[in-house]
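Before the break, one more example. Copy the sequence into your notebook; we will annotate it together after we see the structure.
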Amino acid sequence: MRAGGEGTGRLRVAPFDYPTGMAGEGTGTDGVPSEPVPVLVPRPRGVCGNLTEAVERRSPRGPAVLPYPLAPGPRRERGTRVKPISVHLVSLGCPKNLVDSEVILGRIGAEGFIVSPDPEAADVLMVNTCGFIESAKQESIDTILGLVEYKEADPAKRVVVAGCLGQRYPEELHREIPEIDAIVGLSEYSRMPAILRELVGNARLAHPVQVNAPDHPAYSEGSRLRLTPAHSAYLRISEGCDNPCTFCAIPSFRGRFRSKAVQTVLDEARELIASGATEINLISQDLTSFGFDLDGGYHLPELLRELDRVEGVRWIRLLYTYPYKFSDAMIDAVAECERVIPYIDMPIQHIDDLMLKRMGRRLGEKGTVELFRRMRERIPGLVLRTTFIVGFPGETEAQFEKLVSFVQDARIERVGVFPYSDEDGTPAAKLPGKIAPEVAAERVERLMLAQQEIAFAWNQERLGTETDVLIDGVTETEEGERLAGRSYGEAPEIDGRIFLPDGAGKPGEYLRARIVGVEEYDLVAEPAAKAAGSRRPG
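Here is what the structure looks like once it is written out:
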C-alpha cells in the first residue's frame, strides 16, 4: 500500500525520465519526449516552525533528491563564441508552481540558455519553491540546501531561489542562507534571463533580492517549456485570490485575484493542443471567480462553453472550484459541455458551521449538502474530489465526529486530509484553542480510514464496467512493467491509476478498457473490443 493513501503524502508519479539529448533529438516540438515514462519518487516531508529552525533541522543526508529531471533547452548556434549559460531547475509544489517553472524555462530557453538535467554540469542551480504549509516550506529549505552543496563543491555555480517561499520570506532566506545568490519574486520572471546573465557574469548581484509586490496582470503564459507528458497540460486561467479563508496566506504572497482575458485563455489552449495536449487541466486559486475582477460577474460557465468548441481537446478538467460560487449555470455547463469531464475538485475544508465560520468559508453545512445534491442529480457520472482540514483551532471531538459522519454519508469519491498548521500573518494563527499536533495527526488518520472504506468500495463497484483510459506511460510494478493510465475519474498526480498490460497502447492514446481488478486505490483493466469514444467519457 502506498504511504498514506490518497492526498496524504503518498508517493508521487514524477512526469517522466527525460533524454539527455537536446530538444529535437527524439523529443516533441516543445522538448518533451513523445513517450514519457512515469517514475516513482518519494516526496520529502517535514515540519518547520520558522526558517531558522528549518535550516538547523536539515539532516546530513547529502544533496537533495530532486523531484524530476528537466528537458534540455535549445542549443546555441555553432560558431558562437560565448558559452551558453546552463540552468538546472527543480520545481516544487502545486501545478500552479509547475506552470511558473514552465514559463521560466520557456523564457530562458528562447534566449539561448540551456536547461540541464544534471546539477553538476549546470552554471545556475534554481529551485522554484513552495511556501504554502509547513511541510512544503521544509521541503523547499531541504532542496535549497541540497543545491548549496553543489555550490560548495564548485564555487563558480550560482544558486537562485524563485517561487512562493522566496516571495514570502525574501529577507529571511537571504539572511539565513547566505549561499543563495539571488531570490527572484513572482513578478520578476520576465526579467529572469537578464538576472541570470548578470549573476553569472559577476561575483554577486548588486541587489540579490529581486522581489516586488505580486500585482502583475494575469498575462499570457504561452511558449512554455512543458514538464508534463505531451498529452496532458495545465492551463492557468487566473492568478491570486480574494477569498477570506482565515488559515490561508496565499493572498499575501500571490496577490489579489486577476483573471486572464478570455481570448488569452483560448489562445493558450490552442497552443497546448498544437503541442500534443488532449487533456487540459484548468487551474487557479479559485476557478469559479473567473471574470469577477473584470466586470463583477462570474464567467467560468461561458469560458467552459468556449473551450468546449476548441478543436483537438478531448478532456477539460476543473481543478479547484469554490463551493460558494458554484452556481446552477456552472452545473449546467459541466453537464452539457461534451469535452468538460464530470470531475470536479471542490475543497470544502469542513462541514461544521462554527468551524466553517472560523475558517472564513462562505458556505455552511446546509448549503454544501444542497449543492452536492444538485450536482449529483444533474451531472451524470460525477466524480467529486475535496479536501478537509482537521485540528483547526477550537475543533472539538464532536465537531470532528460530525465531519467523519458527513464523509461517510456523502460518499465523496476522492478526499485529501491535512492537519492544520499556523501560517504567519493569517487570522487563524491568532485564534485560541490550538489543537495538539498529535491529536490533529490522529484525526487525519481516522478520517482517512473512514474515506478509505468509501474509496475501496467505489473501486469494487467499478469492476466489470468499461471506461475510456488515457495512457500516461509505462511504470514498473511488483507484477513487472505495466501501462499506467487514468479514466476521467483520476486527475494526474493526485489520484489512483489504472494499470493495463504492457503493449496494449501508447502514451497519449485513449483506450476503451474493462475494469477487471482492484489494487486498493488503483485499478487493473484489460482492453475492450469497443474503441474509445471521441468526446464525452463513459
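The longest strand covers residues 466-477. Residues 437-461 form the longest helix (25 residues). Try to locate both features in your own notes.
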